[in-house]
Amino acid sequence: MTLNITTVTETAMMKVQEGTNLSYKEMHEFFTEVLNGGVTDDELRDFIVALSDKGETVDEITAIAEVLKSYAKDIPNVNDKVMDNCGTGGDRSQSFNISTTSAFVLASCGVTIAKHGNKSVTSKTGSSDVLQALGVNLEFDAGRVADELNESNITFLSAPHVHPKMGQIMRVRQTLKRPTVFNFIGPCISPLNLDYQFLGIYDREKLMTITQVLKRLGRENAVVMNGAGHMDEATLLGDNHLVFLRGGEIEEVVLDPTDYGLTLCDKTDIAGGDGNENKEILEAVLKGTATRAQLETVLLNAGIGLFVADKANSIGAGIQLAREAVETGKAYAKLQEVIRNNKEAGQ
Question: Which residues hold anthranilate 2 (predicted)?
């Protein structure tokens, strides 16, 4: 039987606009058609808004993620287990690039990091902005990316470069200026088959939903978290809400930073700026010369990541391992290694 694509897409759009959940199959078919040019910008915009207003289900988010990942560029021959610590954005916190800074700490502690990110949509500076300020090459080359992962255990993947079929989605998303399903989808569609994931989200109500999505996507270990202040990072602003996925089991945790010897701070203490300002903060953290709030915020996030990646047997041990990486110069050396390799590749 021949599939009537027009009927499939029109039915999907009608159901979502009526507030009806789609099945995995219906959403998979709809987004396959989106990526093949069968849905106009206006239709996609209306669909995304209606989906957000309805509330996205595990089936719907998983289907979108698997379609988009299937169209991503391939990265072969990666030897180790890989982690991404990309957050959703959308918290409008205007903080410095906490997850990008944490990525260098994680890599310096032996975690293989494939940091998936984008330019800013809802804040001053996205990960791509600060990486460009550092001189990191975000143009995609599969061989170079695989070499970086295998030799330096860290690489950075710019979403527009690894997802060539997502141009329309990115164009429509830019017009909305509000968090949508694509904030949740972004961290789920790394072109690599991730083993570990640290995923901060701006919406606390979505913690369990996104954890279930990561379980469906085959993550070995993961944490989905909403920080105090409803940020998409762990913060020192108060209690952080985390959901861990370990070996197929899910556990909810409320984390008080003071339980780990860290000092509470205000949101202004972790404010960022443009790409160059955030570059300076990132370098200061990795050198160990940043403010206490900036440094300890990164140590908390890196410590949780080290626990998720099985490099530490507890969050407290992970924080201590991250602190040692900064104090011994390992974290800053990893940054210098990345910058040096990028300069050599560009010569």
Answer: 173
What are the residue ranges of CATH 3.40.1030.10 in the chain?
82-341
Q: Which amino acid is at 319?
A: I
The residues pairing with 254 across neighbouring beta strands, listed in sequence order, are: 241
In the block, which residue shows the tokens 């990110």? 117
Q: Would you say the pTM of this structure is higher than 0.85? A: yes
Could you list the residues known to form a binding site for Mg(2+), using ranges: 99, 232-233
Helices (H) and strands (E) in the chain, counts: 15, 7
DSSP-assigned beta bridge partners for residue 249? 246
Check residue 9 and give its pLDDT. Answer: 87
Per the annotation, where are the binding residues? 87, 90-91, 95, 97-100, 115-123, 127, 173, 232-233
Provide the pLDDT confidence category of residue 125 given band limits of 50, 70 and 90.
low
Three-state DSSP state, 177: coil
- Give bridge partners of residue 95 from the DSSP assignment: 271
How high is the mean pLDDT of the chain?
Answer: 92
Q: Using CA atoms, how far apart are residues 72 and 162, in angstroms rounded to an integer?
A: 6
Determine the CATH number of domain 82-341.
3.40.1030.10
Point out which residues pair with 250 in neighbouring strands: 245
Q: Which residues are annotated as a binding site for 5-phospho-alpha-D-ribose 1-diphosphate?
A: 87, 90-91, 95, 97-100, 115-123, 127
Which range, of 2-11, 26-35, 50-59, 148-157, averages the lowest pLDDT? 2-11
Residue 178 has a pLDDT of 84
E strands, the chain, in order: 82-84, 112-117, 154-158, 196-200, 221-226, 240-246, 249-255
Order of strands, edge to edge, in the sheet holding 82-84? 154-158, 112-117, 82-84, 196-200, 221-226, 240-246, 249-255
Handedness of CA 24, 30, 33, 37 (dihedral sign): negative
List, for residues 23-64, the tens digit of each pLDDT value: 999 999 999 999 999 999 999 999 999 999 999 999 999 999
- Neighbouring C-beta atoms of residue 280, cutoff 10 Å: 16
